[in-house]
Amino acid sequence: MINRLNNKALNMLGLAQKAGKMVGGYDATNIAILNKKAILVFIASDISNNTREKVLFACQKNNINVCRQFSTAELSHIMGKNRKILAVTDSGFAKAIMKKINEGE
């Protein structure tokens, strides 16, 4: 079970999604990474090794922060559909979400 601060981070992810400041899915996230629109990428903790390595490589190459502490179920709940990879495209939302995640550690 996620703790209260991580729940706040997930709620902020939901706000980013509703504001149109987030993309989900492998293809959309990869495009956001390559176009340097992604500020913060979320990879489900239970994603396949192959996909995880591809996304991590692209994020490292483009100096993008990555969060891997949420499950597919948690990320999918935020998007309202099955998603294992998300990218926040707004720096304000990304900073606020990272702050909540770091407070929860």
Automatic annotation (TrEMBL):
Gene3D superfamilies: 3.30.1330.30. InterPro entries: Ribosomal_eL30-like_sf, Ribosomal_eL8/eL30/eS12/Gad45. Keywords: Ribonucleoprotein, Ribosomal protein. Residues 10-95 form the Ribosomal protein eL8/eL30/eS12/Gadd45 domain. Pfam families: Ribosomal_L7Ae (PF01248). GO terms for cellular component: ribosome. This is Ribosomal protein L7Ae.
